[in-house]
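Annotated sample (chain length 236).
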Amino acid sequence: MLDVSSVDFEVAMMVLEACNLSKRYQAKVPILEGVDLSVKAGESLAITGRSGEGKSTLLHILGTLEKPCSGKVWIAGQETHALNRAHLRNAFLGFVFQSFYLLEDCTCLDNVLMPAKIARKPVSKKSKATLEAARLIERVGLKEHALAKNLSGGEKQRLAIARALCNGPRILFADEPTGNLDLDTAKTVQDLLFSLVHENEMALILVTHDLELARLCDRLCLLERGKLIEKGFAFA
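Output written by the structure step:
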């Protein structure tokens, strides 16, 4: 198994590529069939479709959280099957989910630092990781020592975004990031999400039911009956 040090985003033409991805459950139920896609550095891609079409499954496969039944995924030109996927996620990938998955009894700082701790980075008071976590918490408008359980839904999602950026990912995966929020809060969160993506020059792969959110991305794709259909820059 290759070390993630072999992954070089500076020379790769595409930060992510997928070829002929298929997924079936219980060897019978087809979810994905022959899905191909590619994403360039700094590009944002929205994947939309009806409930149950497999959008989250596809996102999990692209983010190496789940394995396809067939097909391959490359991150910066390296096939993910040949890499330590846990190390790959820690080093280069960030995730924002509809459910926040926060440590409710911990502070904002402790939550944002969790990816750094998993990556075994130093997290002393003056460490690079802690200083970056503090910067991100301030950037999303929160306080370091506030407890996650005392935050509103919108604040929790802002905290989850800060956590996703802690290790400086090159690709951010977002699964219905505004799905649990009211309209005004969702607008605040989506504006923050896209601002941070652009500031940090990340690629964004976004799954959403919200067509208005999807249209903020550079490209739009529709997942329908297991097939991914490129829709360009606007839906027909």
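Annotation: The first strand starts at residue 16 and ends at 25.
Annotation: The helical segments are 55-62, 85-92, 108-118, 128-139, 153-164, 183-199, 211-214.
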